Amino acid sequence: MKHAHVEHTHERDGADDVTIYLGHEELTIRRRYEALSMLNDLLIGIWFLVGSIAFFYPEWKDAGIWLFVIGSAQLMVRPGIRLAQRIHLRRFPPGQWEM
Question: Cys bridge to 71: 7, 47, 60, 64, which one at CB 3.0-4.6 A?
Fold first, then answer.
């Protein structure tokens, strides 16, 4: 049985892919930062939608408030994802960067 493993590729054109191998199956995430940003936006929408619905029911009001707080905090994650996409710290083997 094959074990799960992950491969990361970075192309010069900025494409950044992650491939996760699970036995005979593989999951490829292209442009991982863009995918992460979309997932973040989807979760923000879910928090605010469910929080808004919770306000229709008095017993769920506190849960709605907390979902709004979580969604608001998660809005701050978005610029962090975009910043991480543009800034990379890359390690070079010794001798490759010496002059």
Answer: 47
pTM over 0.70: no
Rounded CA separation 83/18 (Å)? 19
Distance between CA atoms of residues 66 and 82, nearest Å: 25
Taking only the tens place, the pLDDT of each residue in 32-63 is 788 888 999 999 999 999 999 999 999 999 99
Closest CA to 2 of 29, 28, 20: 20
Identity at 38, one-letter amino acid code: M
Characterize 74-88 residue by residue with b for buried, 16 or more Cβ atoms within 10 angstroms of its Cβ, and e for exposed. Answer: eeeeeeebeeebeee
